[in-house]
Amino acid sequence: MVHPIKVLVTSQKGGVGKSSIAANLSAYMARVASRKTCLLDFDPHGSSSAWMKQAPNVGVVVNHNPLPVSLGKKRSLLDGRAQLRRAATASDVVIADLTWNDATDAELLFDFDAVLIPVSLSAIEIAATVHFVHGMHWVFDSRIRKAPALILCPTRVEDPTGIKEAFTSKTFPIRFLLAPPISADRAVREAFGKRFLVDMQGSAAESFAYFAAAVQETLDGLAKANIANPKRASIDTLQRQFGPSAVLSNFNIARSTHSFSQSRQEVGNQLGRPQLQ
Ligand SMILES: Nc1ncnc2c1ncn2[C@@H]1O[C@H](COP(=O)(O)OP(=O)(O)OP(=O)(O)O)[C@@H](O)[C@H]1O
Ligand SMILES: [Mg+2]
Description:
By secondary structure, this protein is of the alpha/beta class. The chain has helices spanning about 20-30, 45-55, 75-90, 125-135, 135-140, 165, 185-190, 205-230, 235-240, 260-270, and strands at about 5-10, 35-40, 60-65, 95-100, 115-120, 150-155, 175-180. Strand 2 (about 35-40), helix 2 and strand 3 (about 60-65) form a beta-alpha-beta unit. The N and C termini lie far apart (about 45 Å).
């Protein structure tokens, strides 16, 4: 692969499934997609990197380098960039796991090809995620610089019927791709830190494999678009290049016509909960 693909799994919320996605997606990329994969764990508690080391070896290179939280945004940005560049030199895919915090500079997002944000269908999590991505909309909607693709990842999903209503261009006033849902499953929780879903059977493993295949196809599309036109690869080119395919048809492209305040109102109304303050 000419252009190593760089993926960030992030959220400002704790316990939403970032490390579970980062670790399982790394295992999938290495084992199923046969990509040279590096997991870059930016989190101080290092759960995804510890997981990679404790579980049976799947051939993922693991770097645990927490980003500094007390030395200011600039330092954190420079550190993150340097680590990402280093990891990318020997990899086809780099997957970074980061809990977003006050020291994280949104400039770092431009160094990634795709940003995955796990979010459950709970009204509070969706409202918090709307708020979170809105703070970074200047990155995802940038027309001057190459914007990373924003991929919203519904996870810990009990009942997928509400997904279409929850993730619309009205609720999320930003360009995004919607990944197939990862179901809530005891097996996923029990495998945490010990094994990978690619090595398991059952509905949780199936739902994850479907998710991972869709993400892989999207990343491959981004890589091709990057080669064809390194400055202009974007969600739009991805869609033009691929057209509807079996997996990508599970991604919805959304372009907002709504303002953020309308969106907050609608999230509150739709989900029947108080709005985000
Ligand atoms: N699809 C799922 N089904 C059931 N449990 C899940 C699922 N995904 C994650 N979990 C569980 O939720 C908890 C939090 O997951 P995880 O550590 O991946 O989240 P995180 O966002 O990385 O958390 P932190 O903010 O602490 O880094 C773990 O106990 C994990 O096993
Ligand atoms: Mg984590």
